[in-house]
Amino acid sequence: MNTPTALIAEDEALLAAHLQGELARLWPDLRVVANVSHGAAAVEQSLALRPDIVFLDIRMPGMDGLEAAQAIGEDWPEGEAPPLLVFVTAYDQYALQAFEQAAVDYVLKPVQPERLAQTCARLRAALERRSEPQGGATVESALSQLRALLGAPGLVGAVASPAARLNVIQAGVGTAIHMVPVQEVLYFEAADKYVRVITAEREHLIRTSLRELLPQLDPDRFWQVHRGTVVRSDAIASALRDESGKLTLVLRGHGDKLVVSRLYAHRFKPM
User: Fold this and answer.
1) What are the pLDDT digits (tens) for 57-79?
2) Which of 39, 75, 107, 156 has the highest count of CB atoms within 10 angstroms of its CB?
3) CATH number for 213
4) Can you give the residue range of the structural domain that contains 196?
């Protein structure tokens, strides 16, 4: 097996240096190829350097560790398994349960050598398994693990009960508030600090994040198909796959085409 590589994403410089020092002591063969301080840099450098392992601080300025993990998983080259993920977090029992349910490893701040040694042993074993001939199973296993993590309520936010789900979107336009029935929404799309709300007739902007909006939507009716896109399932006319395997959604009575990331392509299979 080639020399294993890792990337550390941690916005506190002293903690990042401590983690890198402990890794050097516990796993001398591991080469840290980059040490970055925010989520966007973690995504950019991970895609450029393609490390075997990424240590992600959960709370970073701008894009947090979960959002960075999702972006890495979606944009990772086709046919290759995304890196093994280890989350660095302050103690939160719900978060730890979510990591355990998704079979993703984590270490607590401040990093304890004994716990980190266990993580290193798990990572070595996982890298050994990846080096064995398994065809596409390793890729799908990694994507399934990431999907399980992103769907864990202990991390993304509590799942809203049916009574708490949105029925109407209140979209402000100047001094007016437009009441948009949720059943008329074709899709939601993240746009900087806003979310675009697209209906058959028009577009609205609401000042919230897609991540905050998602738990308020019925997951059986509204499907996430990309980290920045959620579509109403019965508004989809067809899913078209091109020669490279990329999926594009065609909507009923609307000209927009929506790209499906490979993280969510498992939703679209013939019956």
Assistant:
1) 988 888 888 889 999 999 998 87
2) 39
3) 2.40.50.1020
4) 162-267
